Amino acid sequence: MTDTRRRVKVYTLNEDRQWDDRGTGHVSSGYVERLKGTSLLVRAESDGSLLLESKINPTTAYQKQQDTLIVWSEAENYDLALSFQEKAGCDEIWEKICQVQGKDPSVDITQDVVDESEDERFEDMSSPGLELPPCELNRLDDLAELVASSLPSPLRREKLALAVENEGYIRKLLELFHVCEDLENSEGLHHLYEIIKGIFLLNRTALFEVMFSEECIMDVIGCLEFDPALPQPRRHREFLTKTARFKEVIPISDPELRQKIHQTYRVQYIQDMVLPTPSVFEENMLSTLHSFIFFNKVEIVGMLQDDEKFLTDLFAQLTDEATDDDKRHELVNFLKEFCAFSQTLQPQNRDAFFKTLSNMGILPALEVILGMDDVQVRGAATDIFSYLVEYNPSMVREFVMQESQQNDDDILLINLIIEHMICDTDPELGGAVQLMGLLRTLVDPENMLATANKTEKTEFLSFFYKHCMHVLSAPLLANTTEEKPSKDDFQTSQLLALILELLTFCVEHHTYHIKNYIINKDILRRVLVLTASQHAFLALCALRFMRRIIGLKDEFYNRYIMRNFLFEPVIKAFLNNGSRYNLMNSAIIEMFEYVRVDVKSLTAHIVENYWKALEDVDYVQTFKGLKLRYEQQRERQDNPKLDSMRSILRNHRFRRDARTLEDEEEMWFNTDEDDMEDGEAVVPPSDKMKTEEDLMEPISKFMERKKLKDPDDKEVLGKSSLSGRQNPSFKLAFSGSTKTSLSSPPSSASLNPGSPGSPGSPGSGARSSPSTATVTTKGGLVGLVDYPDDDDDEEDEDEEDGETKEDPLPPSKKSKLSS
Questions:
Q1: Is 122 among the domain residues?
Q2: What is the distance between the alpha carbons of residues 443 and 509, in angstroms, rounded to a whole number?
Q3: In angstroms, what CA-CA distances link 702 with 120, 541, 689, 749, 800?
Q4: Are both 367 and 477 inside the same structural domain?
Q5: Dihedral sign from CA coordinates of 733, 737, 739, 740
Q6: Does the structure show a pLDDT above 80 at 541?
Q7: Could you give the 3-state DSSP secondary structure of residue 65?
Q8: Which of 666, 567, 554, 668 is nearest to 611 (CA)?
Q9: Of the residues 238, 266, 294, which one is the last residue of a structural domain?
Q10: Residue 721 domain-assigned?
Q11: How far apart are alpha carbons 473 and 467 in whole angstroms?
Q12: Which of 550, 577, 608 represents a domain boundary (last residue)?
């Protein structure tokens, strides 16, 4: 039999860093004279040919992985792996390798792997570093090769950066660039492109400060125009000097600030447009460039924020009616970019920034701008407004509540936002979607503050529903006056879907405010008109709105739905959809399924009013389940005695006084549940029950008399209905004077039914059975009276007549058990 322990697959790593399967065979180890050492041998299992012969070198790093894999490098670019079928074979070969190398087999790698960067750390760090070739035209190729070879190694990159920085090499290179450009030396320009690109990847701030200085930055951009991969050089400098213009909308008096703005724009241009997209390995090499731009933006925001005259002039011109449209357009774009720069600030600095803007009157200024006709200006103002809402929605809410005391509803800031959302001319409603998100943030109670003196949620929602909600719902009400939507084009449907999405959010989060609005304005009926829309997404939005309302299980909503018969359009949409299995079908069925399980009042309403339309739907059980649930409810309503009897049985009707109640409950909870399931019925104690001796005497006499009777007598009692199953026997057990129990013993020790001394067997106790059964003490006998079994009435009456003649206990002494 073949030894599977040594069965292996041989793999080699190809140039694409993928493992190639070289064959399957069996591995062994032994001394090979030709190799002068112990070697690993793998022979193919197909023909016995040699797949692998590898000497175990004392210095080679072998690695064991996943218990069945051994990996090592045979040469610089030749990696090998043995994959074993069984762990035992892998362990044997691993022990042999470790034995040759003098290592403990418990290790997973036989040598300490030292990568190139580690090797370099052992070099003498006091060495002078890299020596750069002279900065001459004929040596540019050597310099380009040196830069390229240094980039993969962190230590060599560091040494190269130090050498370039210390020798002022960048300025020398830029002088050569002018020479090459004048001579139209394309080869030299290509080398300079590679060199400057490599210097960017050195990721060193000191070099960036030189390259981005006022006198050097345009020459650096010039070097990066001559990409050897492109047939023609790019014209970046021409764009920056002629096409891109710096506009001072408000004159900047600080020359340092102006220079910083120019520098940041150009560096951002280099990052975004000039440098090629970095590979995965190069991304981290440009982290310092990102940081340089980031900190420049922070400085610009800080310097502008500190210039009070500048900001005062800015807002004064924004709100001045005399300002012409072009100027205002430039001012708004500047403010938008200013706010965008602020996103780079730390949280505490951003707080100070927006407080400054608020104090300068940014919200009244935005209100003026949003009232203009220029679409571009309004778009920029919307972006600025979004920065403010995302930063501090409470600040915006406070402003609009204050202005409502002075202005009409039409010119309130929030109503302007709603109107722009409604009037968005974009076919895809891109701006409307953005504005709807801002409104949702403003009406979200989760970000509203509650203080000791006031509750923002109450105040703002009262304001919103009084002054703004009628503006938001106007398109919905205008389009749903008939049984079908008045306008059903795609853009109108998209807008109504957005409005419905916001109203659905309000239903979930605003409780009584939205409830009053929906019921008073009959909003749900108008919304359900949209289920007749030709656009499925709008009909589904209407269904989702109703489903959220039903999901609240609020009887105010339920009565409103029933009073206005609002399931009618839903059922009409369901029937019009036919047998198509689509999202509409599933959404409506899910709604009815939820009603069936959780909402009794709506269940009755649906069955009583719409059953004829739904009774033929049988591919799901939802509607038949609705009818069944309805009939069960009606049965309980028509037969209140059933519910009251169950209630009596649950609550122990036969009680003497409050003290008895407490004793019975304590006894009930102390009774072992398993015993109850086995058939034991507990007789509750009575304050007037006799002692055990008083009860035992007449019972003993009765049992003796029964033994003398005809053994063919029928059962005294009918089958028990307490548990829904018969128990073959019972025994009497008394545990103290306060407890009498009936229990079902094992069948081997039981008395047969109908035999002398076996008057019947009680069930195990029933809280759910519809019949009423009690255990009574008659003539000293503890037995069951089983009402439902009519067939046994005569037998029971005969038996009871015999018992009452001998009854030694007055009625006041009878003990009764309610299950």
A1: no
A2: 9
A3: 108, 77, 19, 21, 13
A4: yes
A5: positive
A6: yes
A7: strand
A8: 567
A9: 294
A10: no
A11: 12
A12: 550
Q: Which three-class secondary structure state does DSSP give residue 31?
A: strand
Q: Are 231 and 237 in contact (CB under 8 A)?
A: no
Query: Do 39 and 146 share a domain, yes or no?
Result: no
User: SS3 for 363-425, per residue?
Assistant: HHHHHHHHCCCCHHHHHHHHHHHHHHHHHCHHHHHHHHHHHCCCCCHHHCHHHHHHHHHHCCC
Residues 418 and 508 in one domain: yes
Task: Please name the residues in contact with 240: beta carbons below 8 A apart, sequence gap of 6 or more.
Answer: 218, 221, 266, 269
Helix (H) or strand (E) holding 479: none
Percent of the chain with pLDDT over 70: 73
Number of Cβ within a 10 Å radius of residue 103: 17
> Domain count of the chain?
4
Q: What is the pLDDT of residue 689?
A: 44
681-683/740-743 β-pairing: antiparallel
* Rg (alpha carbons) of the chain, rounded to whole number: 46
Residue 144 shares a structural domain with residue 93: no
243 and 263 inside one domain: yes
- Let me know whether 583 and 624 are in one domain: yes
Task: Return the ∠ at Cα 259 (arms to 253 and 265), rounded to 5°.
Answer: 120
pTM of the model: 0.57
- Residue position matching structure tokens 């059953």: 611
Using the CB atoms, write b or e for 582-617: b if 16+ within 10 Å. eebbebbbebbbbbbeebeebbbbbbeebeeebeeb
Contact 377, 392 (CB under 8 A): no
CATH code of the domain in which 55 resides: 2.30.29.30
Q: Residue 622's domain spans which residues? A: 553-638
Report DSSP state, residue 455. Answer: B
CB atoms under 10 Å from CB of 662, counted, come to 11
Tell me which H or E stretch contains 27: strand 19-32
Q: Is 200 left (phi over 0), alpha (psi -120 to 50) or beta?
A: alpha
Positive or negative, the CA dihedral 347, 353, 359, 361 is negative
- What three-state secondary structure class fits 28? strand
Within a domain: 110: no
Tokens standing for residue 473:
């719902």
For the ranges 319-328, 574-583, 686-695, the maximum mean pLDDT occurs at 574-583
Is 325 within the bounds of a domain?
A: yes
457 and 570 share a domain? no
Residue 815: is its pLDDT beyond 70?
no
Strands ordered across the beta sheet of 740-743:
681-683, 740-743, 731-734
Closest CA to 464 of 410, 395, 415: 415
Token pair belonging to 518: 């929906």
| Residue with tokens 């750069």, as numbered in its chain | 132
- The mean pLDDT of 156-178, rounded to a whole number, is 89
Residues 745 and 751: their CA atoms lie apart, in Å, by 9
Strands (E), 678-758: 681-683, 731-734, 740-743
Give phi and psi for 42, each to the nearest 5: -125, 120
- DSSP secondary structure string, 605-632? HHHHHHHHHHTT--SSSHHHHHHHHHHH
Residues paired with 12 in a beta bridge = 20, 80
Distance CA 487, CA 73 (A): 74
CATH of the domain at 407: 1.25.10.10
Q: Is the pLDDT of residue 674 over 70?
A: no
Q: What is the DSSP letter of 30?
A: E
The answer on 492 and 395 residing in a single domain is yes
The H-or-E segment that residue 651 falls in is helix 640-651
Give the separation between CA 602 and CA 600, rounded to whole angstroms: 6
